[in-house]
Amino acid sequence: MVKLFLCEDEIVMRDGIKKHIDWEKEGIEFAGEASDGELAYPMIIEQKPDILLTDIKMPFMDGLELSELVKKELPDIKIIILSGYDEFAYAQKAVSLGVTEYLLKPISPAKLRESIKHVAEKIEEERALEASESEWAKEEEAERVEIERNRLFDALIMNDMSTSEVLDKAKEQGISLTARAYQMSLISLTVTGGSAYSFSESRNRLKSELEAEYRENPEIILFDRGVNGFAMLIMADGEKEADKLSRKTIDSIQTMLRKYSDLDYFIGAGGAVNRLSEIRHTYYEASRALANRFLMEGSDEKAVFTLRQPPEKSESGKTSDDMSKGRTNRLNINPVLDSESPHKAIESFLRTGTMVEAEPLLESIFSTIGEQNINSRIFLNYLTMDIYLAMARFLRDIGIDITEVDKECGDINDLIVRSGKPNEINACLKKYLVKVLEIRDSTSAKKYSRLLSKAVCYIDENYANEDISLNKVSSYVNISPNHFSTIFSQEMGKTFIEYLIGKRMEKARELLMTTDMRSSEIAYAVGYKDPHYFSYTFKKTQGMTTKEFRARGKVSGEGEK
Question: Residue 522's pLDDT is what?
Fold first, then answer.
């Protein structure tokens, strides 16, 4: 409700205004009254009304002086001046102070009520506009922050910026990266029975829960990596403190994850490092630990992997493993591969693994085959062909011939004949594996292109629906919202919100030029429930009001005749 304060020295006039207007019926709260500006000022500052109705000529402090003082403290207040003086100087001063209405006495109750109602409606419009703008601004800002957060993560693990540049980039996002130790953990998520790309409302809820838990914690930075799950950067005063906080946080996250029965997860934990520039090392170690999930034949479907020593015991004598309940394991990886494991690990990896895990996976395979096997030329040849055939089968399943890889990487038989050292074979297999991943991702990109086209068609057909949102569109194409937002921005060169607003403005321009619809009608027709916010958005994006746009079009049309 709009609040009004009355300041008038003539008691008859003041009582008349107060009693002859049904304030409640007009949707206005009568906040108080005073006989002069000096008495009114402290009451106004305390009550903070939306409208000040004041006489201009009063003892002790007149209406203009009162208006000037009040505007300094309450710049958004609307002021209606009542004046018995039809002098230009008074009106000019009132305009300079930002007075909303300047009314001459005598004035009828009906005319006064009409002016007050007009100002109150203007206040309500501004409130609605501010609320609508805030809602859209939050969505647009959320997209922008997500993109910038991912860029910061890339800068940390790629190490392609100087330390000062990374610190500045983090500072822009309100993040302090100053610490004595850093530790990275990676959380891989898949929808049970689905793929990493599948839309999941559970994943959205998990993300909200993780953000709520760690948003205000300066020691933990959470990165949403889309289809790659989440990355968690721990910052502490030392390596022991970082490891301890990491274990505690992982246990807490596992507790959260147990509530989501439709999400399968694995967590890979790296070791602590001392320098900002070494974060890529703890990330690589976490990736290598996580890659070992492809080697764990018969392990639980939900587990924590680490390459370091087992967790220290707590004061209660229990390790954090003992305290982790449910279908979860914390595994220090040292698996022994049987003759069936390599190709199974590769096949599993090619379905859900990431490029950064390729090298760690091959290292793990070679490190666990045993010294006797690694020195056997026959076994190495078998291992090489086994992995190669696994890659060939995967490519065949997605409709690609292995010869596409052979053209760039060479014939596998030549590799077997030419190379005899484990490190040479490892390097060559990595080259093959990376190429297969590139083909897989390229094929996925084509799939994304089709899905993006489907999403764009959906937006183009439903932009007039006021409830359309990023979540609705991503659900329609069955991609997680974060991943959809990322590929949409990359492919379209603009965020989802920017595209949606652009589409609505395009249609609005068309309706302005080809119909006689009112601006409010056009607002509803293009998806805005608030006509005032539509007008604001149109002027902000088009550089002119709807009236000016339509008038300019008419002038242009007349000139062409």
Answer: 94
